């Protein structure tokens, strides 16, 4: 006797439901990713204590594609590992390169691009190339990209930097630091050597990578239409950026059309978690992506909105009269001008820049404690701005 069609459909649906349940029980590291959303009550428990899997979707892997170093048909996309570094930082850089090559790049062989305002030594070139099978490029930063622009008042810089130094602001008296912040904010993507490069992974000396990453992160960015990826989210020192937000508000008043519909304004102006920061920074929470790690799409920075914003800030002079960092500048721009869905927290990339960590709970990680945010004095805990980000934007 034939079984009625509705009963057959019900039976098929039941079998499918059982298969789905079995799949999620047997893949616990992926179920947590699917739960990523806004944490309305803030972060009561570090998400990195839960099993941490890879991002959802189709991921490009070295074993399934041609990533050999000299392949003419390589699966690599138009991207580079990017490092602004000095010759004297060679030994610290080598350790960082070895970490990233071991955990990720030895599988994909993406090129490295090194930038310096001084020529690289032959020793630097020889030792860095020896660490990787990827191609290395050594570039000199043009003087017009590095030195103070003509409208900056040198005497005012000395005066204001002295005041910042007296207020205890780190690096306030170092002109090279101010120049570096401006370069990382609005100049790096203009270098002729990067003219035809779209994606970059910023790498600095003295950082560590703890987890094996088995997929092409640049392909992930491209395939999922992501603009920016981060690991650590912090509060900044408000004394270093007192006029950054007021200048941003002036810019927005002139260009209200640049504000993205799905922006991250709440994260940028929150006054609940650290009200004293918001007050000293004149309306800015000081929350920012810690840009010593960032994976980004340079088309965003080359775009009309960011370029106009940077030019406005550059003319205001805060990179030199105050100590505006590229981290808050990038973060504010992304938070205002980009769709929040295009920013990605790389929860699965284990990372450390003293004294802060991004340490996932994964068998692919070693050398750090899952969920550890900092190492050192307990006051460092309050510098974590992830609770705000997860509350207003989400855990992705």
Automatic annotation (TrEMBL):
Source taxon at top rank: Eukaryota
UniProt entry tagged with the keyword RNA-binding: no
One Gene Ontology term from the biological process aspect of the record: cell wall mannoprotein biosynthetic process
Annotated transmembrane regions: 7-25
A Pfam family recorded for this sequence: Glyco_transf_15
Gene3D superfamilies according to UniProt: Spore Coat Polysaccharide Biosynthesis Protein SpsA, Chain A
Similarity comment: family membership: Belongs to the glycosyltransferase 15 family.
Name recorded for this polypeptide: Alpha-1,2-mannosyltransferase
Upper lineage: Eukaryota, Fungi, Dikarya, Ascomycota, Pezizomycotina
């Amino acid at each position: 006797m034939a079984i009625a069609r509705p009963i057959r459909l019900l039976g098929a649906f039941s079998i499918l439901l059982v298969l789905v349940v079995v799949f999620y029980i047997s893949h616990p590291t992926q179920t947590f990713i699917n739960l990523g959303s806004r944490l309305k009550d803030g972060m009561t428990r570090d998400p990195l204590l839960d099993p941490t899997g890879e991002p959802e979707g189709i991921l490009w892997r070295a074993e399934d594609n041609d990533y050999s170093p000299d392949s003419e048909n390589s699966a690599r996309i138009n991207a580079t590992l990017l490092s602004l570094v000095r010759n004297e930082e060679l030994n610290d850089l080598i350790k960082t390169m070895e970490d990233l090559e071991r955990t990720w790049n030895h599988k994909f062989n993406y090129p490295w691009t090194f930038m310096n305002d001084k020529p690289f030594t032959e020793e630097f070139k020889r030792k860095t190339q020896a660490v990787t099978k990827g191609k290395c490029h050594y570039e000199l930063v043009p003087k017009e990209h590095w030195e103070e622009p003509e409208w900056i008042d040198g005497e005012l810089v000395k005066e204001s930097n002295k005041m910042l130094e007296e207020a205890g602001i780190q690096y306030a008296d170092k002109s090279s630091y101010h120049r570096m912040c401006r370069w990382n904010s609005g100049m790096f993507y203009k270098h002729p050597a990067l003219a035809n490069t779209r994606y970059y992974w910023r790498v600095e000396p003295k950082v560590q990578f703890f987890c094996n990453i088995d997929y092409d992160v640049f392909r992930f960015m491209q395939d999922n239409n992501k603009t920016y990826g981060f690991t650590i989210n912090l509060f900044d020192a408000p004394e270093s950026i007192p006029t950054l937000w007021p200048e941003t508000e002036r810019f927005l008043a002139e260009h209200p059309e640049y504000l993205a519909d799905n922006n991250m304004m709440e994260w940028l102006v929150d006054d609940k978690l650290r009200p004293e920061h918001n007050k000293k920074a004149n309306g800015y929470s000081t929350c920012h992506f810690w840009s010593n790690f960032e994976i980004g799409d340079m088309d965003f920075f080359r775009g009309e909105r960011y370029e106009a914003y940077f030019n406005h800030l550059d003319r205001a002079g805060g990179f030199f009269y105050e100590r505006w960092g590229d981290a808050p500048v990038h973060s504010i721009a992304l938070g205002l001008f980009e769709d929040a869905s295009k920013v990605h927290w790389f929860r699965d990339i284990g990372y450390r820049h003293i004294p802060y960590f991004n340490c996932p709970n994964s068998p692919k990680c070693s050398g750090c404690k899952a969920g550890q945010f900092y190492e050192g004095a307990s006051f460092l805990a309050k510098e974590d701005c992830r609770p705000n980000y997860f509350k207003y934007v989400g855990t992705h």
